[in-house]
Amino acid sequence: MDINGKTALVTGGTEGIGLEIARQLLAKGAKVIVCSRREEPLESARLEGLEAIQADLSTADGCSALAAALSGRPIDMLINNAGMSGNFGPGEPLDLALTDQAIFLNLNAPLHLIGHFLPGLLQRPEAVVVNVTSGLAIAPRSGGPVYCATKAGLRSFTQSLRHNLRGTNVHVIEALPPVVDTAMTRGRVNGKKMSAQGCAAEIVDAIATNAKEANVGMVKLLRLVYSISPALTRRIMIKF
């Protein structure tokens, strides 16, 4: 896709990977719309030249409100990046309210937004849907069961959606980041982490080159090991 002149909607685009994707698309000549529940990061995004809309994507009404706010606007790129961990630790009770919120934000919200925006995307000369999942969608870890489940579900949906939209003008990309240095992973995940800027660069490159998947950073190695032995990969990752 020629990014210059296109309009992109990036959910979760005011921090972390989403903000870096938004910045890099803007630098390539795209008009970029981001959303967040909080006004403070929205104002910071506006100062960088991004269009920013307040939206709570953890509810169906919030997804509908965002679609209504952009009704009639041409959207060429829908980048479903917003997410939360929703994790619980060993021996801790499962917080059902937090679980429901994570399931909706991570899995249902991308489906709702695709449902809202797909008719318009199909009318564009060329368009793309990017669903940001995770390397943990391939093999889960014990420390993040809810997060892993939602990302695996979104991975499955993305693969089916790509097949269903074959032959149309809408290209579907799955982006699978490794552990990235963001607010969500700080204090929760130890070890080496990829920068949000580097992760975003690989996702933006996948958009520009019409890739089917963006296996980002160490996920390339994960995919290789999985192709050799899925069982070994699962045994390694569950302890991660």
Task: Explain the overall architecture.
The structure is a single chain. This protein has 240 residues and is an alpha/beta fold. It has one domain: NAD(P)-binding Rossmann-like Domain (Rossmann fold), CATH 3.40.50. It is built from eight helices and seven strands; from the N terminus they run E-H-E-H-E-H-E-H-E-H-E-H-E-H-H. It has a seven-stranded parallel β-sheet with strand order 3-2-1-4-5-6-7, sandwiched between helices. Helix 2 links the parallel strand 2 and strand 3 (51-54). The longest helix has 26 residues, at 96-121. The protein starts with 6 loop residues before the first strand and ends with a helix.
Task: Tell me briefly what this model is.
The chain has 240 residues and is of the alpha/beta class.
Topology:
Blueprint: E1 7-11, H1 16-27, E2 31-36, H2 39-47, E3 51-54, H3 60-69, E4 77-80, H4 96-121, E5 127-132, H5 145-164, E6 170-176, H6 196-208, E7 213-215, H7 219-228, H8 230-237
Parallel strand pairs: 1-2, 1-4, 2-3, 4-5, 5-6, 6-7
Helix pairs in contact: 1-6, 3-4, 4-5, 7-8
